[in-house]
Amino acid sequence: MVAQDDPRRSAHKKPAAPLDFFLDGGRLTARQGETVLSALRLAYGSADMSSRSRLRLGFCLMGACQDCWLWHSDGRRLRACTSRLEAGMSLVTRAPGTI
């Protein structure tokens, strides 16, 4: 989902090119230059879903609280709030190899 008319995006800037990425096998679309967390918050809303879901949508938004850890599908960890999206990035909400 690309929210071109979303008021949270700066109205005076030309929108960056869209890119696709994957979360738990599902395809999402965001914009180049966005952090993983900003794209997830636009796609899923800003509510903290950690109590009912594996997806945590961040707390401090600056890399201090450790609330937004995700994994690349190859096992590398990343903080969603400080990591920029890359086209085709494949992320999972649980460490690879866990149930």
From TrEMBL:
Record-level Gene Ontology MF annotations: iron-sulfur cluster binding; oxidoreductase activity
Keyword Oxidoreductase: yes
InterPro entries per UniProt: 2Fe-2S-bd_N (IPR042204), 2Fe-2S_ferredoxin-like_sf (IPR036010)
Organism: Rhizobium tumorigenes
Keyword Oxidoreductase on entry: yes
Alphabetical list of Pfam families matching this protein: Fer2_4
Name under which the protein is recorded: 2Fe-2S iron-sulfur cluster-binding protein
Keywords, alphabetical: Oxidoreductase, Plasmid
